[in-house]
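Its record is set out here:
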Amino acid sequence: MQLTSLFVLLPLAVSAFAIDTNLNAVKKAFAKSGLASTLNIKFSPSVLLQVTFPVGAGNKSVPVTAGDHVPPTAVAIPPIFNVVGAKTTGPYVAVMVDPDAPTPQDPSVSQVRHFLASNFYGVEFPSGQLLVNFTAPPSPWFQPAPPAGSDPHRYAILLFKQPSSFNKQVQTLVNSTSSILNFDVGKFAAATGLGEAIGGTNFYIAPP
């Protein structure tokens, strides 16, 4: 995605939030959230996906720690992805979904597809692979915004290896005019040959 590609090349001033550094901690947080069951997927990541949201002026950022709460003001633009422990440099597919819309008690329009982008490639750095993407996403970034009165929503970001047939297959299932409501990431992954996620994280956002 073009926005992501631009931001990953900028130095970011890290905020008081911490970023994921332990794969086992990510697995535990994901299990505690119940997302794997809700999304009907298996989550056994082999790489550490680090997610950071650029925020405002001054190259500030909000890193994500799995299972933590992220302020709604921090998610206006797409996140930056860094991958630790990968044996290849891509391509990858990234997906973000919300299974709690409009509320966790009444998830009648879930899953909401907040982001779906392909053709991510890793640029090697000592800290891991910074993912860059210069192609338009099949489903552009849709800012999370739980409605007033709702309990906090759970969000899952999943990273997949991209099969060679993905770009052709995805055109029949998702495009920029497709509804983002009632998405099913598990069925989508099966239909497009993505298989199981190789990385991911989760977080919560409460209404303002």
Summary: The two ends are 28 Å apart (CA to CA). The CA atoms of residues 77 and 143 lie 7 Å apart. DSSP finds five helices and nine strands in the chain. The beta strands are 13-14, 48-55, 60-63, 80-84, 92-98, 112-125, 128-132, 153-161, 199-205.
